[in-house]
Structure formats: structure tokens, C-alpha cells
Amino acid sequence: MRTVQDILNSKTKSLITIKPDTLVYDALQMLNTVNLSYLVVLEGDEYKGVFCERDYSRNVVLKGKTSHTATVAEVMTVHLPFVDVKDTVEHCMNVLNSHKVRYLLAHEGRNFKGVITINDLLRQVIDNREGVFD
Fold first, then answer.
1. Which of 1, 4, 22, 59 could form a disulfide with 88 if both were Cys (CB 3.0 to 4.6 A apart)?
2. pTM of this prediction?
């Protein structure tokens, strides 16, 4: 069975990061430029959270904030489930389902390695459909 490390190795785009003090407006522009749904928030080399389109709609628009004054740190998602690079795709799917999230944080020991998305897992299922579907 394929592992988190296999998924990370197969991802074509490198990890796109942003600083916590970045304005939401600039983060949205970056999301548009790189054509991703999330950015990893780092302070130096330390993982702080994930900023995604859902954070914008729920924590900026619905809370009456403005993207020109709010920072990523004010609206980002900070609590996401962790998976180990040795965990299987099936395990990841179960974690996503049980936590009702779209992103998982991949770690090797205490080291942050990347993000596994629901789309990454769907690609794995589609690419290996003969082993999943009859």
C-alpha cells in the first residue's frame, strides 16, 4: 500500500509558504498565482498553520474583517491532524473522514514534511482504481 512519503514524493509542486504577518489580501493573490487552495504558514523554519480559501470565507468575510488589514495569523487554521510519512493512504482517508478536514500535516518524527490534501488522496485512489474498484 502507498504511504504518505510516496504521496509527498509524487507531488509536483513544491511547498509554498507564507509568513504569519502577511496580509490576507497578499495571501489570496499568492493562492491565485500558484493555483493552490492552501499555503503553509511558517515563521522561520517553524510550522505555524495553514491558510486556505475556507479560512478567508469563514474568518474574514463572515466575521466582517477586511483582507487589506487582517493578517494570515489572525485567520489561519492552526489545528490539523498529523500523519506520519510511513502511514498508508487508507489511514489518511480515515483520519480525514473522522476529523472532517481537507488537509493533513505530514511529519517524520518531530519534523514537518508537508501537507497531504484530500485531492492527493483522491488521485491515489484514481491512479490505483484497479486495486480499489472491481
1. 1
2. 0.83
